[in-house]
């Protein structure tokens, strides 16, 4: 099957906030448009009060950057914009500049499916200041949503403890693009299949589905409906049993299952979409086993999420497969990740990089300045700590001290003897050219699985997860502190 990689093949350069364009114009007017800069995209808190986050969205970003340009219709629209006095918002020279603008940035990013944590740079963009600035809104739009949904999917699949989770959220998703991106991110996060056929076509995700209550209601009896469905799909029979009476629905499914067996086919299972799922799944399991269908699956749906699935597991519900929709694709309990994109350094004509910091009364809102990277230390296949460091740091030292950027009392000494280390930021674009070998979505999903295995279950529990150590290397922490104090002193003069 051919999988479409470039979901958006035309330019989306105007998919941005207006102030990005006004800043771009001002950079151009002030002669700063080509000054080299570095921006970092990161988030400040794990979503869902959880202990980890799953990075997603890089594939969309690659397509966006490869197609980045302003076409004639874009430029005509900008040229027609007027100020309050009737003058043009953007002068012709700037429009001409945009017409000739070619994407030329370096982008380094963590791979999709990587487990990440607050303050870690998920994406680092280096290049002309004007280009870096214009990338802010679309990169945040892509990463914020897909990372949020991939993380939600991961939490749900962790709660399911190895049972397949099917994403059924298309009809409740936030518009067409929201549905497609959610299906993709859900699969990356661990779901087994989607009901979204277009997502199946575009991304190569397995699709799944049976029938709705309307199918049953269109016949005179439930039994007639089941027989008719078995005639149409003898190899894919999962019967929805709760249209009228769940127990009677299970009986009807068993009756049709026996007819299928006489024809050399096998009923795959039943689905329950309402009521007491723990109770009715146990009844269904008992009835199916007694009737000679021990391999028939019990599928459950009905506004499920990780908390409800965990509760049903505790109740020993006899459910084999979970259909999850609304609360997954809308990230029902947290509608946004809150990732940000901050300037970290600018380069002067003499080649010197100047670190930049945003000062705030809230320590959590103070960014990490300078050109930095992140390394993950592990031992025997288990992650121990992540260190954010200045890129010129010697990574062959015997030990390091990392300091929590928001709480200097939280420190950890890392003895690197016998530890493995991995730089999490991988080169994606160099001077505007893609140098990254893009994995397919199934490889990304496997990357998620491998990454999660690196972390202790204490970091993955749903309630009060243990905090995984992430910190600034000591010299970076000192540089940041000195720069903040300098800027605060400057502000009071």
TrEMBL record:
Residues 14-144 form the Nicotinate phosphoribosyltransferase N-terminal domain. Pathway: Cofactor biosynthesis; NAD(+) biosynthesis; nicotinate D-ribonucleotide from nicotinate: step 1/1. Residues 167-349 form the Nicotinate/nicotinamide phosphoribosyltransferase domain. InterPro entries: N/Namide_PRibTrfase (IPR041525), NAPRTase_C (IPR041619), NAPRTase_N (IPR040727), Nic_PRibTrfase-Fam (IPR007229), Nic_PRibTrfase_pncB (IPR006405). It comes from the Bacteria. It is an enzyme of class 6 (ligase). Its EC number is 6.3.4.21. Residues 374-479 form the Nicotinate phosphoribosyltransferase C-terminal domain. One of its GO terms (molecular function) is nicotinate phosphoribosyltransferase activity. Transiently phosphorylated on a His residue during the reaction cycle. Phosphorylation strongly increases the affinity for substrates and increases the rate of nicotinate D-ribonucleotide production. Dephosphorylation regenerates the low-affinity form of the enzyme, leading to product release. Pfam families: NAPRTase, NAPRTase_C, NAPRTase_N. It catalyses: 5-phospho-alpha-D-ribose 1-diphosphate + nicotinate + ATP + H2O = nicotinate beta-D-ribonucleotide + ADP + phosphate + diphosphate. GO terms for biological process: NAD+ biosynthetic process via the salvage pathway. GO terms for cellular component: cytosol. The keyword Glycosyltransferase applies. The keyword Membrane does not apply. PANTHER family: NICOTINATE PHOSPHORIBOSYLTRANSFERASE (PTHR11098). Catalyzes the first step in the biosynthesis of NAD from nicotinic acid, the ATP-dependent synthesis of beta-nicotinate D-ribonucleotide from nicotinate and 5-phospho-D-ribose 1-phosphate. Belongs to the NAPRTase family. This is Nicotinate phosphoribosyltransferase. It comes from Arthrospiribacter ruber.
């Amino acid at each position: 099957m051919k999988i479409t990689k470039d979901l958006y093949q035309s330019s989306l350069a105007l998919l941005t906030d207006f102030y990005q364009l006004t800043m771009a114009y001002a950079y151009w007017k002030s002669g700063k448009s080509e000054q080299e800069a570095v921006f970092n995209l990161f988030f400040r808190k794990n979503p869902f009060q959880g202990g980890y986050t799953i990075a997603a969205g890089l594939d969309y970003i690659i397509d966006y950057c490869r197609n980045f340009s302003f076409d004639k219709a874009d430029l005509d629209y900008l040229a027609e914009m007027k100020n309050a006095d009737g003058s043009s918002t953007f002068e012709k020279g700037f429009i001409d500049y945009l017409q000739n603008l070619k994407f030329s940035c370096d982008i380094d990013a963590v791979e999709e499916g990587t487990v990440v944590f607050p303050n870690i740079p998920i994406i680092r963009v280096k290049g002309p200041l004007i280009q870096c600035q214009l990338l802010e809104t679309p990169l945040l739009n892509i990463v914020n949503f897909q990372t949020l949904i991939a993380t939600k999917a991961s939490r749900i699949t962790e709660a399911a403890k190895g049972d397949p989770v099917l994403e059924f959220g298309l009809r409740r998703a936030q518009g067409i693009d929201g549905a497609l991106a959610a299906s993709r991110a859900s699969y990356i996060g661990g779901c087994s299949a989607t009901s979204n056929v277009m997502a199946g076509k575009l991304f190569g995700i397995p699709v799944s589905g049976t029938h709705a209550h309307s199918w049953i209601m269109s016949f005179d009896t439930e039994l007639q409906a089941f027989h008719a469905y078995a005639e149409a799909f003898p190899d894919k029979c999962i019967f929805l049993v709760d249209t009228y009476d769940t127990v009677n629905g299970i009986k009807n499914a068993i009756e049709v299952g026996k007819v299928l067996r006489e024809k050399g086919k096998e009923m795959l299972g039943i689905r329950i979409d309402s009521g007491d799922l723990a109770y009715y799944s146990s009844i269904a399991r008992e009835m199916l086993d007694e009737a000679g269908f021990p391999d028939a699956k019990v599928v459950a749906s009905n506004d499920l999420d990780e908390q409800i699935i965990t509760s049903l597991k505790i109740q020993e519900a006899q459910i084999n497969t979970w259909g999850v929709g609304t609360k997954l694709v809308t990230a029902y309990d947290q509608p946004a990740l809150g990732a940000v994109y901050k300037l970290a350094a600018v380069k002067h004509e003499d080649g010197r990089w100047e670190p930049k910091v945003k000062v705030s009364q809230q320590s959590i809102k103070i960014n990490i300045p300078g050109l930095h990277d992140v390394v993950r230390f592990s031992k025997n296949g288990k992650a121990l700590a992540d260190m954010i460091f200045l890129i010129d740091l010697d990574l062959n030292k015997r030990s390091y001290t990392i300091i929590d950027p928001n709480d200097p009392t939280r420190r950890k000494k890392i003895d690197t003897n016998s530890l493995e280390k991995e730089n999490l930021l991988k080169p994606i674009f160099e001077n505007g050219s893609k140098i990254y070998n893009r994995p397919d979505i199934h490889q990304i999903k496997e990357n998620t699985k491998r990454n999660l295995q690196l972390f202790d279950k204490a970091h993955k529990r749903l309630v009060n997860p243990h905090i995984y150590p992430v910190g600034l290397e000591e010299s970076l922490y000192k540089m940041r502190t000195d720069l903040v104090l300098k800027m605060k002193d400057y502000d009071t003069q």
